[in-house]
Design a protein that fits this description.
The protein is mainly beta and about 160 residues long. The protein has one domain: Beta Complex (Metal Binding Protein, Guanine Nucleotide Exchange Factor, Chain A). The chain has helices spanning about 35-40, 145-150; strands at about 10, 20, 30, 45-50, 55-60, 65-70, 75-80, 85-90, 95-100, 115-120. Strands 6-7-8-9-4-3-10 form a 7-stranded mixed beta sheet. The radius of gyration is 16 Å and the shape is globular. The protein starts with 8 loop residues before the first strand and ends in a 7-residue tail after the last helix. It binds zinc ion (2 copies). One zinc ion binds near residues 14 and 78.
């Protein structure tokens, strides 16, 4: 989706203390199955989208965010309801990651469909069965995967 056609989307935490706005389509979308993400979210996997840092605005409740620092990232939660809203990753400086699961209404991240993938499938929970056809990677996806998959098969 061209950035010019993108209408702002909104997300919020469960209790409503924190609300954010995203002004651009997400660059990529990941479903991460690593044990750290599972513990951070309390779910079998975590879904992330990201945009350039200045394309995400916290419209309400900055003071309600608590931050947990892990070795490679900072994770921002609502300190009242515990909802996990945002993250900043050292390996992706200048970007802001958000959780599409917290978007309001019918909003979607607007990411390129070929960018959607499962990562760290090699450490997924034994409780989980992945039942879609998205690409899967044992750890991080190689950086060229999205670019490669944009080519039409057979096209030169
Ligand atoms: Zn909250
Ligand atoms: Zn993870």
């Amino acid at each position: 989706m061209p950035a010019s056609a993108f209408q702002p989307i909104y997300g919020r935490c469960e209790c409503g203390a924190v609300r954010y706005r995203v002004d651009a389509p997400a660059e990529e979308l990941y479903h991460c199955h690593c044990s750290r993400c599972r513990r951070l979210h309390g779910t079998l996997f975590a879904t992330y989208a990201y945009v350039a840092g200045d394309q995400l605005v916290i419209e309400k409740g900055v003071e309600s965010l608590a931050t947990y620092h892990s070795p490679l990232a900072s994770w921002h939660f609502c300190r009242t309801c515990g909802c996990h809203l945002l993250a900043e990753h050292e390996h992706n400086p200048g970007t802001m990651w958000y959780m599409p699961a917290t978007l309001e209404g019918e909003a979607t991240p607007g990411h390129p469909k070929e960018s959607e993938k499962h990562i760290f499938v090699g450490s997924k929970s034994p409780c989980e069965t992945i039942s879609d056809d998205l690409p899967q990677f044992d750890e991080y996806a190689p950086p060229d995967v999205s670019v490669t998959s944009k080519k039409t098969p057979g096209a030169s």
